[in-house]
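Hi all, long-time lurker, first post. I run a small reading group and we've been trying to get comfortable going from sequence to structure in the token notation. Rather than ask abstract questions, I figured I'd post a concrete chain and ask someone more experienced to write out its structure so we can walk through it together at our next meeting. Sequence below, copied exactly:
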Amino acid sequence: MEPYDLRDRAADNLRFIRETMEAATSFTAVSGWGQVLVGVSALITALIATTLRQPAAWLLLWLAEALLAMTIAVVAIVWKARRAGIALVSRPTRKFILSFVPPLIAGAILTLGLYRVGAVALLPGMWLLLYGVGVVTGGAFSVRIVPLMGLCFMLLGGLALLAPASWQSWCMAAGFGGLHIVFGVLIARRHGG
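-- Answer (accepted) --
Happy to help. Here is the structure in token form:
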């Protein structure tokens, strides 16, 4: 029987330690200032959306806002990670993405389905609710305040689904605008930007 090579054993131990340490960490590159920018762009979009009368134009405006918000968030996360020397490709990042994205995909599919049957009035509540679910599940692998932000989105989504149709623009402004700004400032102050 060949003796176990000490170098292999040391490499196995180091790999185990690295994987254990990586599993115990959280995704800390969520950018508070990026969230503030997302909130400001959402407030501007909400103001413009109140002037639109055609559902198709309203939907296209909010879809454009979603793309803009994702771009801002990704750029801000990359910037914060580089500034703080945080590795973006890590197990916590993968867990965050794999937990955050599925509710957004469900929201995109439901958006198509609800728009096809003319149920545009349900979109604000559904968007806020599913975005909140994504933030809660992704936030489980991030700093503590992120899941709380997701719960606030879910509550606002429930309110938007049950409230009169005239409240929905205000719910969108309060959620995608107000909540991003408030929690963005809190994240920036407590977690380095």
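A couple of things your group might point at:
The two ends are 57 Å apart (CA to CA).
The chain has seven helices and no strands.
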